[in-house]
Each structure stands twice: as structure tokens, then as C-alpha cells.
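pasting for the record
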Amino acid sequence: MKQAPRKYANYIPIRELHSKEQQLSPFQVYAELRENTPVRYDEHRECWDVFRYEDVQYVLKNPKLFSSERNRASSSMLTTDPPKHKQLRDLVNQAFTPKAIDALAPRIQEITDELLAPHLSVGKMNLIDDLATPLPVIVIAELIGVPASDRREFKHWSDVLVKGARDDSEEAFQALAKEKQQNMQELCAYFTDIMEQRRIEPQDDLISLLLAAEIEGQRLTEEEVVNFCILLLAAGNETTTNLIANAVRILSEQPELQDELREHPDRVVSAVEETLRYYPPIVAIGRVAREAVELGGRMIKPGEQVISWVGAANRDGAQFEHADEFVSNRKPNRHMGFGFGIHFCLGAPLARLEARVVLHTLLERLEQIQLVPETLLEPIQSAFVFGVKEYPIQFHERRL
């Protein structure tokens, strides 16, 4: 297989998203690309872009045609194909069951209440710094087995894992690659150290469970345990932070939804799903063509990189009625906010649970939630992640 292109595609947005306003709300651009060039090759980024729902789903559900494997020294479930992927996922599932996730609900509620409490009487908070970021960091850290004293460093590593280049220059790309390489070395050393401690003295945490997990006589290697922890750190923290922040952003942009969800609290579950469709935390997913394949009338060659734009597919009118409207009780809702196929996000139940707890709590404790006036939003610099760096809100405390 030809080596996948190394530059640009993973780090900078598509060229049409050249302004901050477009990066903060890229969906009109996605719509034009979906309509005019549903499958196109970008010479600058050296990759294919796919925008229609049907085509995106086809790419993601066919790992035999579109591989997740990368030319890396290490691998995780995100970057392996069957049968290795299934073996990894089956092993990890033993330590990541729905029952285990559901059991976290009281603790997630407790953390949410603790993080929210100092801000209630003030009537203001930075949603991301004060709640949406620390909540998943604390939950994932406790789940993995990271000491509370290491959470700040833990969050820094998480940020670097999903960081994008400051611009599209070769210098910026090289600087980012160097930073990510150092970050990975630090993370591997950190988790290896914890893993060695757990071998001597197992605890009630995910690393201990992963070390003990066995299927058909096989256990995860040390490298696989470390890589899964890194994957959980990146996917579990950043995705959940942006899911929560994007949901509250929608509530503040469409304040009538706040009243609707208070009147119909059972809709919070479907509102979280609609957030994943309407403002998905992950807007694009990369693959590499295994063989020559025709898609949308274009011929993709073996080894070429293919970017599936989930953010565009989730607004495809051929799949969703009133695709550009937020419908809190939308059913069915076959969004691909957590991916699709064998690489569907393993942490989806945890992210959904955290988002539901936060939304229920905010709607119960706060009213008139809105973005602080005159706030200039800054998009996260990542081609694949959709979110903002800060989201300060103001509100009135509800008297229960």
C-alpha cells in the first residue's frame, strides 16, 4: 500500500473555511460542498473529501475498502482493522460494560453539582473551563486510575492530543508534529508507570481491569493497554467537553429550547442526540483507501487518504427532514456524531451520560442561560473537532 500523505489533512480545515465566522458555523459551507462537489480531491491537502450522508456512511462501514490503519509505530482500536480490531474491542468491552457506565451516574451528578455550586450565586461562569472540561477529565481520570494530583497535567496532555496547527505552513506543521511526539512519549511513560504499579497492587480502576481482561486465552499487551488509555484520554475528554459546550451553545442561541426541555425533561435524551447531529463534536473522520474504489463518480486510488465529513452528512436533507433545524425530539435520528460501523465510539455511552446529567442539572438549577454579551468566540484549531475555546455564560439561579 502506498504511504498515506503525511501533511495538512489532519491539521488544517478545508480551504473554504477561511474565516473565523465560517469555522464557528461551517454548515453552510458544508451544504454547498455537499451539493456541488460531494466527492472531491483537494490537491493542497492531498486527500479526498466526502460530504454526502450516503457516501460518508459507505466509507465508514467498509473497513475492507477504507482502512483505519496508519503508518505509526504504535496502534490503538482507532487505527487497526479486523480481525485485530475486534479482538481489542472485545477485550476492552469487558472493562467498559453498560452496567459499569450506568454505575457512574451518581458520581457524575456529584461532580457536576460540586463544579456548579461556586457559580450559582454569582450568575456567571466560563462553561468550558469551569464545568465542561473538568467534568470529563475527573471522570476519565478516576475511571483509568489517575491520581487527583495529576489532573492538570492529564488535561494538558489531552489538549495536545487533539491540537491543530496554528496555520497551514510547513513550519507550523513541523512544530505541531514535534510537540505531539513529545506529548506521546510523556503519556506512554506516565501510563506505563501506573500500569507497573497496578501489576503489583491492582485497584478498582480501568487499568487494573484491562490488565486482567482475557478472551480466548489472550490478554492485552502492555503497549495495547497504554494505547487504549491514551485513546480514552483523547476521545473521552475532548469529545465530551465539546458535546456539553455545543449543547449549551444551542440552548443559548435558541432560548426557547430551554423552556421546552424544562416542560418536557424526558426530551433531554433525544436533545443530546440532536446535538450530536446538529453541532457534532467530531466533524470529520479519516481513512485510507485499501484498493481502487469508485465513489460519487470519482476514482480513488489505493493508499490515498479519504476524509469523511460527518458534519456535512449530519445535515444532509436526503436523510434528515428539516436538516438545518434543531428538533429536540427528532426520531429517528441516524446521525453519525460518534462515527459509524466497527469504529463507532466505544465511549459513546459515557459521553451521553455526562451530557444528560449536565443538561438536566443546568436546566433544573439555572434559567435564562445566555452567552455573555460582547463575547468573541474562538474556534478550536482542529480540522476534525468542532467547538469553541471558551464559552462564558450568564444566568439566573432557579429557586427550587
